[in-house]
Amino acid sequence: MAIEAGYLGYAVVNGLKVRCTDFNVKMVQNVLFYDHIIGLRDSVPTSILGSKGDNASWNEQKIFYRPGTKIVEGSVSFPLLETSASAFYIDACKGNDINVDLFYGCHSGKEFKRCKVNTYSFTATAGEGGTVTASIMGIDVEDGEDVEIYDTAEKIITWDEIKISGAGANTGIVSLDFTINNNCIPIYTAGNNISTPLLAKEIRVGMQAVTGSISFYNEIGPEDGFVESEEPRTITVKAGIFSATLTVLYQYPERSGQVPAYVRTIPFVGVGRAVT
């Protein structure tokens, strides 16, 4: 039996092929129960379909139910690679509509339509490569076409190739992580939609929030009183074709009484046009 090269599956986003370490995006639909309407010993009129009538019998909860609305939800995780490091980032910043194709076993696949990036999380740690997890929210899914195996070799971007610079972020960095949260909301219409039953009409991007933290060895860290200053700082991150500029305010760090190595972690929050 031949062993196929490459990961078990990969995603295609805006033409970029992303080798996934995890891809759990799927269509979600829950059954909705109205168990607040009828209690355990409530009786209901005989005219209601499936009821036992007004005879003081024990009436089960969850008599009233209906299929819930459908939504595509899930996340994609992948390491930073030379050709796909920027996947999902610009779409997360701008709230773009995207189609995401997943090919598993390097053959069959699914096409997730009219998606938005709900959250985008970037993590880089000294001695390790960078990783990204992007959670998406979409409207529909279809079976994809068979494709050829994707076995092109790609180099993982390691810590020494990740450049972090900017005000107060120049030396002694242990790790950096940040998350873009678009607070996406699915928009539905009342009544039956014959053409797209129980599917959302659109995905709306809410108020964008950016949070994260940066860790420094020992007392090395931002200069000029980062806690007292109200002036935003700029952190630039570059990793291959990936490039992000964060405009942040540093927050007061928590102090730990005992740690194996003295590492100071400083949280920050995005302000203004936080990511570009």
- Count of domains: 1
Low-confidence stretches: 1-7
| Helix content percent band | under 10%
Our measurement of the CA-to-CA distance between the termini, rounded to an integer number of angstroms, reads 48 Å
Anisotropy-based shape:
globular
Using the CA coordinates, give the radius of gyration: 24 Å
Number of helices: 1
* Annotation, overall tally of beta strands: 17
**Quick check: average pLDDT?**
78
Largest sheet: 15 strands, antiparallel
Sheet-strand content, in percent, reads over 45%
Order of helices and strands: EEEEEHEEEEEEEEEEEE
* Alpha-beta content class: mainly beta
Account of the protein in words:
The protein is mainly beta. It has one domain (9-28, 68-275). It has one helix at residues 89-94, and strands at 9-13, 16-19, 22-23, 26-33, 65-79, 98-104, 109-125, 131-138, 140-144, 162-166, 173-181, 185-187, 202-204, 209-217, 233-239, 242-250, 263-275. The chain has a 15-stranded antiparallel sheet that branches. Strand 1 (9-13) and strand 2 (16-19) form a beta hairpin. The longest helix is centred in the N-terminal third of the chain and has 6 residues, at 89-94. The protein is globular. 27% of the residues are buried. Residues 1-7 have low confidence and may be disordered.
